[in-house]
Amino acid sequence: MKILVVDDYATMRRIVRNLLTQIGYTDIDEAGDGVAALAKLRESKFGLVISDWNMEPMTGLQLLKEIRADAKLAPLPFIMVTAESKTENVIAAKQAGVNNYIVKPFNAETLKQKIQAVIGGA
Questions:
Q1: For tag attachment on the chain, is the N or C end more exposed, with fewer CB atoms within 10 Å?
Q2: Residue 57, preceding bond cis, omega within 30 degrees?
Q3: Is 47 in contact with 1 (CB distance < 8 Å)?
Q4: Residue 79's closest CA among 61, 55, 105, 91?
C-alpha cells in the first residue's frame, strides 16, 4: 500500500516516514503542503493519506475537503495529525470525512493502531 505523508515541516515528514517503516510500510511518498498533495494524489494511486492539520497555503482540513469532493479520491482513507486535541477540531475533521485522528506526539504503536482501524488488518 502506498502512503502519502503531508506536512509542511520536513522533520515531521521524516518522523512519520520512519514510524511507518518501523511498522512495515515502505511505499511512502511525501508532500510539503496540501496543494502538492492533491497534485500527487491525482497523478498516482495511494492507499492512505496521513496529513498534518496546520499547513499553509492549504490546511489539512482543506485538503481533506478537496479529497472528499473529488469522486476519484473520495474513498481514500485519511488520517489527520495535529498538535491540538480541541473538540471543535475533531468535530470539524469528522464532519469533513476524516477516517481517524492522531494527536502529536505519537509513537509507532499508536500509528499502527490508527492505520489498522482505518484500513483493517495488518
A1: C
A2: yes
A3: yes
A4: 61
51 DSSP β-pair partners: 6, 80
Which uninterrupted H or E stretch holds 103? Answer: strand 100-103
Task: Find, among 89, 86, 26, the residue nearest to 60 by Cα.
Answer: 89
pLDDT digits 0-9 by tens, 87-111: 898 899 999 999 999 999 999 999 9
pLDDT in tens, 12-26: 999 999 999 999 999
* CA pair distance 10, 77, nearest whole angstrom: 22
**Contact between residue 49 and residue 66 where contact means Cβ atoms under 8 Å apart:** no
- The rounded radius of gyration (Å) of the Cα atoms in the chain is 13
Residue tagged 468535530 (cell numbers):
91
CB distance 20 to 5 below 8 Å = yes
